Amino acid sequence: MNGSWKESSPPTFISGSDTDAAEWMQDWKAVLARDLIDFRIIFVDADSTVEEACDKLLSEDAPCLAVRSEQSDHDSPNRSPYQGLFDFSDVNAFLTLAATRHTFSLDDTAPDPRQLKIVEAAKAGRVPVHLVSNLSDKNPLISLPNDADVVSLLEVFARGTHRVLIQASDHSGEPIGMVSDRGLLAWFDSYAKAKPSFRQYLANPIQPLPLPSLDIYTSVVAALSTASVLDAMKLMSEEGVSSVAVIDEESGALLSAVSVTDIGKVVVPSQSNQILGAPLHQFISLVKAKDGRTDGADRYPVYSCTPSSTLQYAIEKLLATNAHRLFVTRESTLSSPVLAPSAQGNLCGIVSVVDMLSLFAHLANVEDVDPTEMQKHRRRSRSGSKSSVRQSPSVIAVSPTDIPRIDALSLDDLISKVERRKSVRSNK
């Protein structure tokens, strides 16, 4: 599991000429962030329950909600009415807290005061969403002015933030929309198609590029295919990541990945604790095998690339799979999606959307670029986190009485329920 692409000197930075980089930066400064808005603002009242917020995430098929607080008439007109963001990372953090709250007394350090407030609210029967907003530490509320440009977006995203609000031109405090880091990456992909010199830069292999530091090559968070869904949820919450690699227990080969979005879209609608105990290989078959159900093939989306893959290939694969990160696997001559295993497995690193944008931020001369900054902060804040590399997660025993909203759905029932939900959405 713990591997690196190069055992010798640190990777060297490959770029176009200084003239090319200067020209690119001028192009980027000429493009306004408001023209890249890829999500409308979908809000939820701060006093709404977490359940209501989850239902809205699912019914709107939204990546994120803005948590809106009430404002009085005498409040400053420039003050934003929003006090935070709420997405599936926060859902995962909340569900993990709900399923493992009985372990607080076993911890060496005192639980987080905010977590205690959430537990007390849960005991009272109502958890307002403002308590859970940014519980994952992945959703800071950041706004940019209406005249912000692409370089301004890079300054934010290259440090680990995933979304920013764009303010209206009238300075009312009401944002006009949201730009995501994936949306910005898609814009760079389009820019490369129109700019031959930048397209040539993206033809470089990822192996020698600083993506973003040597630490990234060994910071692979993974779970065995026999681990439970709850194990993966807890691991993502502790390590401050939005997805984990799922590896075969025997060969160590990469099978697929499980993300907080997968958790939110399956666990929340199920209203069952049974899915939390399901092994990850079953969970993958539930959420990743849509193509296989339609054409009869047994295949999952492959969230991987190799060290020799080009930057362009990695970008296009991130966009095509709707993923936030790719897992880097050792080279293989096989055509199978599950690449050739070795004694240590074939997983040797990761590359993410944030890593890509950090490269472009360097080209734009953005100072103090550290795409691992937020992740390091999240890991420091997780008292149970011992290491950034896990061959298997710590297993916490969970009894049915520890988990709220329980019914007796079987895994087959759950599969049918999720498929019906997908069918209803597709027919809208």
TrEMBL record:
Q: Which InterPro entries match?
A: AMPK_gamma/SDS23_families (IPR050511), CBS_dom (IPR000644), CBS_dom_sf (IPR046342)
Molecular function as annotated in GO: protein serine/threonine phosphatase inhibitor activity
Q: Which Pfam families match?
A: CBS
The CBS domain covers which part of the protein?
A: 216-275, 297-369
| Record's compositionally biased regions (Low complexity) | 384-394
Superkingdom of this entry's organism? Eukaryota
Q: Which UniProt keywords apply?
A: CBS domain, Repeat
Q: Which PANTHER family match?
A: AMP-ACTIVATED PROTEIN KINASE, GAMMA REGULATORY SUBUNIT (PTHR13780), CBS DOMAIN-CONTAINING PROTEIN (PTHR13780:SF36)
Protein name, per record:
CBS domain-containing protein
